[in-house]
Design goal:
Rossmann fold; single chain; 6-stranded mixed β-sheet; alpha/beta; 12 helices; 23% strand; disordered C terminus
Length: 483
């Protein structure tokens, strides 16, 4: 089955129903009838540009609905798509053509096609030579880029079987209320693995998927007017939405389900989200390589630091040592995930594949434990490396202490105020490290290595008071940071 076929079925059955909505963008919103036309028109134009089944096409398209139309239109042709916000792709990934709705530098002889709304124009009728339902379940249909634990993009191949299995799992992993939600706001990109899954899931069921528009205020107003039932977002986005809702009292909140994904959430932010957006806050722990591995209502384990959810049905999470041997129950060690959703490896990267995919499972790089009742508790990262919106940094407790780094909103600052003193101390020590020479070194140590060492010492050494070298700081001035 082609993964676009169920969507085209909905286009025939309910052509007037709203399919996609991104307020303030090129299309603003499209019905299922219009979406079906977009799919066929994009496919026809792609064939005229020489693309055929089995080709790989890169998408650098910022407009969300135009991006969605290209994903579906090319996938219906049997063309494998890969999307990225950055104008770079892994060197191991072969691409036959690239589509961009803005200037894109050509390199390596790659074909680049500039696209706009005109690409979606036409009579919208299907042609007889498009890929139908004869595709194998193991046929590749999408490539997702993930930085894994290194910060460098890796390509993960999704087959029809992978997509279908992950879509069907959404009916169970997020509780009994989520399957009843047909109006879903997704504040993660279509280029991500979880974004693709929710995108296909919503359209397969004939629901309406809401995407972030041009202005945050317009997005919130649209969510309110359409009475959106569920939301998928990262902790950073949830904090921003909670702040916007405080500024817009007309937004009722009270969503049936709020799902957070991407990084861990502090207890303070969790309480804020549940108070403002919806009490049914659900965690989602997983990866592009393995899908959702653990989930559950945050209220059930909110008082357990590092808890990310209960091991999902059909998933086995082993806690092992570095050699891959299982550790006794309750012992902390490396997390290994085994399930039918785990992909085979990374495209064109055998070294990373051998390192991350071993003993029949996937190693996400997390350190944690599983309680007797199946609750997964994450305590850190194997290499103390974490993704903050694309930047790789080393936090105090891996993902657990990262809430919404980089946000300047008042609500985020208030939610994370308790961590500021330690952060200020580490920042001051890091700045001083630029002129430090490591004792015993035969040559000056690089700024990056000194920076890392100082941060580690600030994180693990016994708490100390840091004196402020400013007039008045010691007597009657600002008190030192309390650790």
């Amino acid at each position: 089955m082609n993964i676009v076929d169920p969507i085209l079925f909905q286009c025939k059955c309910q052509p007037l129903a709203l399919a996609l909505c991104a307020p303030g963008t090129i299309f603003n919103s499209v019905t299922y009838g219009r979406l079906g036309q977009l799919i066929h028109n994009v496919g026809r134009n792609a064939r005229e540009h020489g693309l055929v089944r089995g080709n790989v096409a890169a998408l650098f398209i910022k407009d969300p609905i135009l991006h969605a139309a290209f994903i579906l239109g090319l996938t219906k042709l049997g063309i494998v798509t890969v999307s990225s916000r950055e104008l770079e792709l892994p060197k191991e990934l072969h691409v036959d053509a690239a589509f961009a709705d803005s200037s894109y530098p050509s390199d390596g002889g790659r074909r680049v096609v500039t696209v706009d709304k005109n690409w979606t124009m036409g009579d919208g009728t299907p042609s007889g030579d498009i890929a139908g339902s004869d595709l194998s379940e193991d046929q590749p249909c999408r490539i997702i880029l993930t930085s894994g634990t290194t910060g460098f993009p890796k390509a993960v191949l999704r087959t029809t079987r992978h997509v279908s299995t992950r879509v069907h799992r959404l009916l169970t992993v997020y509780g009994s209320r989520f399957p009843d939600c047909s109006r879903i706001f997704m504040d993660v990109g279509l280029s991500t693995g979880v974004g693709l899954t929710f995108f296909i899931y919503t359209l397969w069921r004939g629901g309406t998927l809401f995407l972030r528009g041009g202005k945050p205020v317009e997005t919130v107003e649209t969510l309110s007017s359409h009475r959106v039932q569920a939301m998928l977002a990262s902790p950073k986005s949830l904090a921003e939405m909670a702040e916007l809702c405080d500024e817009m009292p007309a937004f009722p909140g009270g969503l049936d389900v709020v799902i957070w994904t991407g990084s861990s959430m502090s207890r303070a932010l969790s309480e804020r989200v549940r108070a403002r957006l919806g009490t049914n806050l659900v965690s989602s722990y997983g990866s592009t390589e393995a899908g959702v591995a653990a989930s559950g209502p945050v209220a059930a384990f909110a008082k357990i630091d590092g808890a990310v959810g209960y091991v999902a049905p059909g998933v086995t999470i082993d806690i092992v040592d570095r050699s891959g041997e299982k550790l006794p129950a309750g012992t902390e060690g490396l997390v290994r995930i085994r399930s039918e959703c785990v992909v085979d490896g990374y495209v064109g990267d055998p070294d990373s594949t051998r390192r991350m995919f071993r003993e029949g499972g996937f190693y996400p790089g997390d350190v944690g434990r599983v309680t007797p009742n199946g609750l997964l508790v994450i305590s850190g990262r194997e290499h103390a490396l974490i993704n903050l919106g694309g930047d790789k940094v080393s936090p105090g407790r891996g993902r657990a202490d990262v809430v919404c780094a980089g946000s300047r909103r008042r609500g985020v600052r208030a939610a994370d105020a308790a961590r500021r003193p330690a952060a200020r101390q580490r920042h001051r020590l890091a700045r001083r490290s630029r002129c430090v020479r490591v004792a015993g070194a035969s040559a000056p140590t690089s700024t990056a290595s000194i920076h890392s060492e100082v941060l580690d010492r600030a994180r693990f050494d016994p708490p100390q008071r840091v004196r402020q070298d400013r007039p008045g700081s010691a007597q009657g001035g600002r008190r030192p940071a309390r650790q």
